[in-house]
Amino acid sequence: MAKYNRNAGKPWNSSEVSKLQDLAKENTPTRVIGLKLGRTPGAVSNKASEENISLKPTNQSPYNRKK
Prior knowledge:
Blueprint: H1 14-25, H2 30-37, H3 41-50
Helix pairs in contact: 2-3
């Protein structure tokens, strides 16, 4: 089983939502956010939609890679 199933079905708490906001601001990919929060990528997308958090990439590459 994948690691992200450890919180599947559990309600979100306020600290998880704030961590989701922080990770989204850092342009972290949805799958990575899911692994860090112990949620599925679908659950992360749904919660971000409910909380009006944009997961769309900004004009920077993830992890601040240099070209």
